[in-house]
Write a structure and sequence with these properties.
alpha+beta, 7-stranded mixed beta sheet, 5-stranded antiparallel beta sheet, 29 strands
């Protein structure tokens, strides 16, 4: 039942002179108004539920009430309010003759906002946390149409998207319709919710047979999130935009936005950036085993052992390509060159004595089965599309289009496990006509029974994303659209296929008794589910027969000599991590509770649109923070680290989940969260001046700022810049700035000059030391830039840092 706490919001869009005007319902006939989320969705569902899918366009003269009842099939006309389409047909409902009238909204009808008096940017942003918000009508044309049609309807069926956002729109529609329904407004018993997962005949018919009631708890969770996001985002954005406005010549301060989801998203990217620039390469050495080249003909396996791979366009092809398994040293690598030289000499001497023979001591063969993947949820779809070169935001748009056109099921779901009684057979049958993967579908139908996929998680929202009733192929869709449809179709078929079966082969060669090398080969015995998902098939790795012991030799623990050309030393350097790919960022956001499966693409798109990050299409769509994004994140961290971390948002998301489950009160959660956020805002407001130096160092013009390379940063090993700007008590002030890390280090205030101290480095933090002269020019003192700003912990209660980044006594102080 609908919670009795719900009360309709009064936003009457009709004037007094329209009060008696009625909608298009037939007098004396029970009329049910159906509302979908989009016009195309309303049309598709109406076609599926009507007795005929043939649509007849009606002129206004054909729509009189006396003639309407005599017409059969689906009829479409334009409403008098705007040009919103209304689809009409007759069909029994609630055991009575019923005229069904289908219309739609276009997303949210209302949006949460501040009252007009709080729209002034000159207002103290702190007041926003305590003011009441209100829902304002954003689409008056649609709202007016709903109000008008409500006056001739007896029942309301809501076909909004089956997620929290859709549930919230349900109550926005109810606010417009329920108070004006025929027979006295405010009646909830004839309000119904249709739950469906695909635009297909079985799905919508099942929804009509199993109508439920709108979920007030889920709607409240959306209202709570909207209020918290609005107040936190607007308060921080207004304050920092005004603070930085026209302050630095190189900084575009027209809108310095903050978002409770977008900023932690940026934080993940900046964190990886800092890991990269702080990385110090280290040389290492390893021993390489060089074996004779084996003729390719001797390596080719049978024709059945072909590997299915993807070409550059993601298309499935068969190939006999393979790679020779690599022999890996058991020590992997050593970081001392002399040790590597000694071990290489040991092996070389052994090979000379043994006539270039090593000992093949063992070969282990084992079978491995890999289960099919679970069903595809939204996050998995977005991650895979990004790997294919289709951005998350674009992929979500394509998936929604495919859903509205009836090609796939609902694309916003957290579930990867299929519910009991799921109809696999009909969906598989719909794929048999496809020229590219139809044979896989036919193979599944030839099984004695279709086994339900194991694994995955049922989140209780929607089934995993699958193909729907409408058949699609390469000719009926554009390139990107087909690639997403192909991914979803192939993934669904893969979940129903047998295990992938591999044979793993591991051989080991020993030289000089102590040094060992292993090679791991892979042979595919049964492609299983990778027949449908060829991009996930493992590469064929071959160990030449000469370097494999037979089963009989292995069983009897025999060994034999094999040819080895030489053992040589390879030098390398440790490598820093790469920038996050969009796919990795999506996974990180999901893991840390930032955004929902549907909103994650929006947050990534926002940080890119704000120019806080840029996404490089090549190499897996890497997300690289810009100077602006790095500086903002470093600024937040210098005042309140949690502003750019996921902890606050993740906690809020958990509280919103409790509201949606009916385990927490919306007002209590919002009140508590706002109290915490307001405290953070006040702290941020009081300490904003801390970041002035950082922004000035990053965005002031060269004419405004004197800057010269100075000493080495202990983190990124690049030069800090000595900057002199402004005047304090009649003299210049100095600071050191690391461009790479976007961090400033204050210098002693009584310094008249600062210079490097003969290449000496701090024994704790490895920053190069400087010497400053006092203003009287009579004394000079050494100092470490990092330790001066972050004093080490002296182990006393008087320690300024209170146990900061250092835990030992500083050698200079």
């Amino acid at each position: 039942k609908i919670s009795q706490k719900w009360q309709p919001q009064h936003h009457d869009m009709m004037g007094d002179d329209e009060e008696e005007e009625r909608g298009g319902g037939e007098r004396g006939v029970f009329t049910c108004l159906h509302v979908a989320e989009k016009p195309s969705l309303a049309k598709s569902i109406a076609q599926l539920l009507s007795s005929s899918s043939e649509e007849k366009k009606l002129d206004d003269d054909d729509c009189d009430e006396s003639s309407l009842g005599n017409k059969r099939g689906l009829k479409t006309k334009k409403t008098t309010v705007g040009s919103i389409e209304m689809h009409e047909f007759y069909r029994p409902f609630l055991r009575k003759k019923c005229l069904h009238r289908f219309t739609s909204v276009a997303g949210h009808v209302c949006s949460i906002d501040f009252p007009d008096k709080f729209q002034d940017w000159d207002l103290d942003p702190k007041l926003l946390f305590d003011c009441k918000t209100e829902k304002k009508v954003t689409t008056g044309r649609i709202r007016g149409s709903l109000e008008r049609e409500a006056r001739t309807c007896d029942a309301l069926v809501l076909w909004l998207d089956c997620d929290r956002e859709g549930e919230n729109i349900c109550f926005e529609v109810m606010d417009a319709v329920v108070p004006r329904m025929r027979g006295g407004g405010g009646r909830y018993e004839n309000v119904y919710r249709a739950k469906f997962s695909a635009i297909s005949k079985p799905s919508v018919e099942n929804a009509m047979k199993n109508l439920t009631k709108p979920n007030k708890n889920e709607s409240d969770a959306v209202d709570a999130r909207q209020e918290l996001d609005l107040k936190m985002g607007v308060a921080f954005t207004r304050f920092q935009t005004k603070y930085f406005q026209d302050k630095f010549s190189g900084f575009d301060s027209r809108c310095v936005s903050y978002g409770p989801c977008q900023t932690p998203t940026l934080g993940f990217c900046v964190k990886r950036h800092l890991e990269i620039i702080r990385f110090v390469p280290e040389s290492f050495w390893r021993l390489k085993l060089n074996l004779p080249t084996v003729a390719a003909a001797s390596l080719k396996q049978s024709d059945d052992d072909v590997v299915i791979v993807d070409d550059d366009n993601g298309m499935a092809t068969k190939t006999t390509s393979y790679e020779i398994a690599e022999w890996k040293w058991h020590r992997e690598r050593v970081f001392d060159e002399s040790s590597a030289i000694s071990l290489e000499a040991l092996c070389s001497d052994f090979l000379k004595k043994k006539d270039k023979k090593g000992t093949l001591v063992g070969t282990i063969r084992s079978k491995q089965s890999k289960r099919p993947p679970p069903g595809m949820n939204t996050v998995e779809m977005l991650k895979t599309c990004s790997k294919m070169g289709i951005g998350a935001h674009r992929a979500m748009q394509i998936a929604e289009r495919l859903y509205l056109d009836g090609f796939i099921s609902y694309p916003r779901t957290e579930s990867s496990a299929y519910p009991p009684g799921f109809d696999f057979k009909s969906i598989v049958a719909s794929q048999t006509s496809n020229d590219e993967w139809g044979d896989v579908a036919k193979k599944i139908l030839s099984f004695s029974s279709i086994r339900k996929p194991s694994g995955g998680q049922d989140a209780g929202d929607h089934p995993p994303i699958t193909p729907a009733g409408r058949f699609g192929n390469r000719n009926s869709m554009n390139g990107e659209m087909f690639r997403v449809y192909e991914l979803i179709s192939r993934h669904f078929l893969a979940t129903l296929l047998p295990d992938l079966v591999l044979e793993n082969i591991e051989s080991e060669i020993v030289i000089a008794e102590s040094e060992r090398w292993k090679a791991k080969g892979v042979k595919i015995l049964d492609f299983g589910w990778t027949e449908a998902l060829p991009r996930r098939a493992p590469k064929l790795k071959i160990i030449p027969d000469a370097y494999q012991l037979s089963d009989n030799e292995s069983k009897n623990n025999k060994s034999r000599d094999v040819d080895v050309i030489s053992v040589t030393i390879e030098r390398g350097e440790t490598q820093p991590p790469n920038y996050l790919t969009e796919s990795e960022l999506i996974g990180t956001m999901e893991k840390n509770g930032i955004g929902t499966d549907a909103s994650i693409p929006t947050h990534i798109n926002t940080v890119e649109a704000r120019k806080y990050c840029e996404i490089v299409p090549r190499d897996g769509r890497r997300v690289i923070p810009t100077d602006l994004g790095i500086t903002l994140c470093r600024a937040y961290a210098s005042i309140d680290e949690e502003l750019a971390l996921p902890t606050v948002r993740a906690h809020i998301e958990k509280q919103l989940d409790l509201i949606a489950e009916g385990k927490a009160d919306k007002n209590a959660v919002v009140s508590q969260a706002l109290m915490q956020i307001k405290a953070k805002f006040i702290h941020f407001e009081k300490n904003i001046a801390i970041v002035d130096n950082l922004f000035e160092a990053s965005f002031a013009s060269p004419k405004e700022l004197q800057s010269t390379p100075h000493t080495v940063c202990g983190r990124c090993r690049r030069y800090l810049k000595l900057q002199a700007s402004g005047r304090s008590h009649g003299r210049k002030t100095f600071r050191l700035f690391c461009e790479t890390e976007a961090e400033t280090f204050e210098c002693p205030r009584n310094a008249s000059s600062i210079k490097p101290w003969s290449g000496r480095f701090c024994e704790i933090c490895d920053f190069e030391l400087s010497i400053y002269e006092t203003s009287d020019g009579e004394r000079a003192y050494p100092f470490c830039p990092f330790c001066y700003n972050h004093p080490p912990d002296f182990g006393t209660s008087s320690s300024k840092s209170g146990g900061g980044p250092h835990s030992v006594f500083h050698p200079i102080v």
